[in-house]
Amino acid sequence: MRIDDIRVTTLVFAYPEQDRFRYAGGRCTHRVTSLIEVVADDGTVGIGSAYSHPRLVEIVVADQLLPLLRGEAIDDVRRLWRAMYAGTRWFGRKGAVMSAIGAVEVALWDLLGKQLGLPVHRLLGGDGVRSVPAYASALLWADHLPDLTPEAERHRNNGFRRMKMRLGRSSDYDLAALDAVISGAGSDAEVIVDGSMRYTVDQARLLSTELARRKVFWFEEPLQPEDIDGFVALRPQSAVPVAAGENEFGVQGFAELLRSDAVDIVQPDVSRCGGIGEARAVAELAARAGKRFAPHSWSDAIAVMANAHVVASMPNGITVEIDQSRNPFVDQLLVSPLTVRDGLLNLPDAPGLGIELRREVVERYRLPSDATPPAGTYSDMIFGGERLHQIAPYG
Questions:
Q1: Given a cut of 70, is residue 388 above it in pLDDT?
Q2: Helices H, strands E: what count in the chain?
């Protein structure tokens, strides 16, 4: 089996007015993801996705990665990854290039699994587990605090026993919002707090004491991702585990976090950090440092499943993140939707990633090849002149 073509499809979704949500980046109006399909010479297709600027992903794949890979045998995915990385190192290493490389690599793992008749987690050395822990990721900033309680109840009723909320709005808001979520989640549920990169070290340290009293599972990204020294200062003082990594790329980036003992939990995302191989290498590095691994995922169901395969292959893998913010790329994209029961995400038995795209959903949200993403706030990305900083500093 050899590589014949690579297709990139950008999907864009505009939230209805009533479903737009507030968070530390402002008001989310749209979602975006880039689907990658690697086509083999026998017609078999492997699927991946990138969570990055879609036009940059398209350029990198069409102009750099496809010419490098066309005609290559699909027998050693890490060898192909190294070729892509070496061919783009001068302008890559972090950001959109690494995300594009990772998306192609995920599709290559999917193809290799289909060729060998094995699920990806078995190719990675997993012991054949059929499910992995998963958590509901939503509970954004609420203008009416009591609304958070029934939302948490809904996630629990949908099979989740762990859920993540966003804090960092204000000192008056944060603990009241957390208490509202805990009330709906139930006494035996585990609540994760995302700090939205909004705190100083002292603010995060003080808040962590209150989080510990409420048995919060981890404290995610309390500081700006570039503030490694701040994480180094905070981690030993935090009363709950500190997690970070969704804004990091490649093993080298995570090695810096782990060498400096800046976090307790690393959060690579296969759709951002460089793919399945990089995420697993990060997890192995974390295991050697006595740290845990819990991948980030906030783009689509392909990324969720790819992350889940990595978690299933690693003993220090904790859980996978499943966006519950009415994102159709998570809820509707797959023929067999993501299924969570008793806090566990089912892993299919089928070879590769074990997923199939719903083509009608792809066509519904496909962005024409000659179009640019509409102006708006796309959760982690902003297009079309929207103001980047719309929220007052934390206080």
A1: no
A2: 15, 17
